[in-house]
Design a protein that fits this description.
The protein is mainly beta. Helices cover 3% and strands 15% of the residues.
Length: 329
């Protein structure tokens, strides 16, 4: 691929040389070869080695690179070790310097993705971002030294200076904020939002720390806030649920449902409007006969009743025995 004069002019202008200087043999500093390579002294400065590649900077790119190409590098030693890697973009001194076969990487900043060799689909923006990465994939680092020590960890997102700084093999972490998840080394699936959020986590998994430093080694924990004195959450008050249990909070701020002590009785609320009369329920089953009660006290004597009619004359009785004879007078 032949370089146009405009490209030569642009590249040379980057180092403050006039466009005619490249043809001036007397300078002995910059010269153009028949292979369309611009050298500055004895170092390649601008070339398009390989297929559809462009390399600008002292020893940027590899003169023997091959493969599908589509790589762009601007900066001293940027993509200088590339062999067959494709579709990489490196902007900054030593950006992606050691990349060999890793594809689809983007590095912006001094030493960004410097040690990457085979890792692919990474994005590093900031001095030292993903500097030590070797084979990690699908990482996104934005900020000075973000994910700087990562070597094999994949699918991490670090936004903010020193975020996920010591992570080496941890996967699928999200850190947003300066120094967020700073000390995490191998923990995975953690989320940290805020300045120094999750800074105390080291190897725990599945934590969410928002505005809180977290606790070393813990897992499966959510921590929100640190120095706040009040909490307001919308969508809870006066919003009924179908069922539920009591929730309590201890002095450390931990929320739970077991062992909740009964709180002070609140004021009686206002009486609500009377509801509509419901339908009459079905008649219940007859209950068992109750136990016989004690006999009641004797009542007061009643009034004498009305005299009844005279009864019929009874039958004549038998003649009585003869009496004893009396003494003679």
């Amino acid at each position: 691929m032949k370089l146009s004069f405009h490209l030569i002019y642009t590249a040379v202008s980057l180092v403050s040389f006039s466009p005619t200087a490249i043809f001036a043999a007397s300078t002995g500093d910059i010269h153009l070869t028949k292979e369309s390579i611009i050298y500055k002294e004895d170092k390649a400065f601008v070339h398009t080695s390989g297929y559809e590649n462009i390399f600008i900077g002292l020893n940027a790119g590899n003169l023997t690179t091959s493969g599908l190409g589509g790589n762009s590098a601007i900066g001293h030693l940027a993509l200088s070790a590339i062999t067959t890697a494709k579709y990489n973009t490196a902007l900054g001194s030593k950006a992606l310097m050691n990349n060999l076969t890793g594809d689809n990487n983007s590095a912006f900043g001094v030493n960004a993705l410097l040690n990457n060799t085979i890792g692919d689909n990474n994005v590093a923006m900031g001095t030292g971002a993903l500097q030590m990465n070797l084979s990690g994939r699908f990482n996104h680092a934005l900020g000075v030294n973000a994910l700087v020590q990562n070597t094999k960890g994949s699918s991490n997102i670090a936004i903010g200076s020193n975020s996920l700084l010591t992570n080496t093999i941890g996967n699928s972490n999200l850190a947003i904020g300066t120094n967020s998840l700073f000390n995490n080394t191998s923990g995975g699936n953690n989320i940290a939002l805020g300045f120094e959020a999750g800074i105390n986590l080291t190897n725990g998994n599945n934590n969410i720390d928002i505005g809180n430093g977290g606790v070393s080694g813990e897992s499966d924990t959510i921590r929100l806030g640190n120095l706040q004195k009040s909490t307001y959450i919308a969508g809870i008050y006066n919003n009924p649920t179908n069922a539920g249990i009591a929730v309590c909070i201890d002095a450390s701020g931990k929320i739970g449902t077991n062992g909740c002590a009964t709180g002070l009785k609140g004021d009686t609320g206002l009486t609500g409007a009377r509801g509509l009369k419901g339908d009459t329920g079905a008649t219940g089953a007859k209950g068992d006969t109750g136990v016989k009660g004690d006999t009641g006290a004797t009542g007061a004597k009643g009034d004498t009743g009305v005299k009844g009619d005279t009864g019929a004359t009874g039958a004549k009785g038998d003649t009585g025995l003869q009496g004893i004879k009396g003494d003679t007078g």
